[in-house]
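pasting for ref
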Amino acid sequence: MSKGNLLSVRHDVRVLDATLRDGGLCNDFFFTDEFVKNLYKANIKAGVDYMEFGYKASKEIFPTDKFGKWKFCDDDDIRAIVGENDSPMKIAVMADVGRCDYKNDFRPKNESPVDLVRVATYVNALPTAVDMIEHFNKLGYETAINIMAISKEKTEDLKAALEVFGESPVDTIYIVDSYGAYYPEQIRRTSQMYLEYAEKYGKNVGVHAHDNQSLAFANTIDALQEGVSYLDATAMGMGRGAGNCRSELLIGFLKNPKYKPEPILDHIENYMIRLKDEGVQWGFDIPYIITGQRNSHPRTAIAFQKAHRKDYRNFRYELYDLE
């Protein structure tokens, strides 16, 4: 049964800005402090509930000279932007299974500016993901689990994963359409499945949509109507490949008067357009349509774009050869 309608104010809704984290995949996280500070201020004014600063990646795995600071999200770097974060907006980071040193790189919550740690995992890495969730919970953080590439998973495997995470101390379980392959009917069914387990175990459900088929916003608000409450978005849709649900669209849609799109529009005008002009690439385009329709990882489309290719028909045929 749908939860509300297009005019409803949903007080359980939480908007998470993932511009630095997902958008950082477009420019190797080389955002200026000015950009980050202004996005932080814009999100506060816009009523955004969480701002994700980036990944907490291992410096043993990823060389620090090849990535910007938001690949690693040191507490001191976050504090340089937010101070004591005297605002209602909470700070988030993402920890990727197999790509972070979670036992050593996280201080207890009372020593860190971070409020929420989101763990990104594939279904086949559940034991490590659960161990990470339990570790972060003991340190005092809010936690979320982002189960990636679910459009490739069997329903019974997803249900088994939801049962496992339901029994864990995680606070929020995210639907993640990594390949931008879902259509609204599929996102509604998936939302209903996640919500069934969430209600059983007292969890929140979130959605993180990709825009390969120009459906990230539609899928986000369809999930919202089903009862999903944590909604990811990025300024100007900035994110890997086709990008994400646009903050300016989502915040302009939500009926709660606490959300205001104008500060995001100002940030886009003053900073996001400049990134595009400097050659940073993201956004809906034909190669991403093709990978979305084929339910394929966007890495092939990203390589196609970087090669300045325009032979779209050949690219579509190439994907058949990869399957």
